[in-house]
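Support reply, case 0932

Customer input (verbatim):
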Amino acid sequence: MRDDALDATGLLPKAIDNSHVVREVDPRSSRDLWLLLLLAAALVGGLVLYAWPSLEIRQTSLAREQMSKERERLLEENRKLRLEKAALENLHRVETIARRDLGLATPAPQKLVVVERPREVPAGSRLASGSERAPAGRN
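Our regenerated output:
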């Protein structure tokens, strides 16, 4: 009984049955939603276009730094290899190894044979000793 008295005063909400109500879709809400999505896409696109160059610059500078370190390492390796090559080409060292490790000795002067490569004669030139032309096959 007490609920009926409060209900008469309007303090308690009344149960309303809305199951038969058909709601129409407002075309403006759809348009507003598309406009909001377009605005959000424009903001995200602007942020991407703003941040992209700085990220590319950062990546390029990191790659440049790595390549600079790699270049320094390769230059140092090249210097060491040149020194090693010079040491290996040292004729005194080669002669010492030949005598000590391989047991080789310098031949007697009468057993020495000197082999010289003939100078290349350009095709079509004349030899100084005669009027013959140089063979065409030699360059």
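We compared this against your earlier run and they match. Two observations from our side: Residues 27-89 form the longest helix (63 residues). The CA atoms of residues 96 and 102 lie 9 Å apart. Please reopen the case if you see a mismatch on your end.
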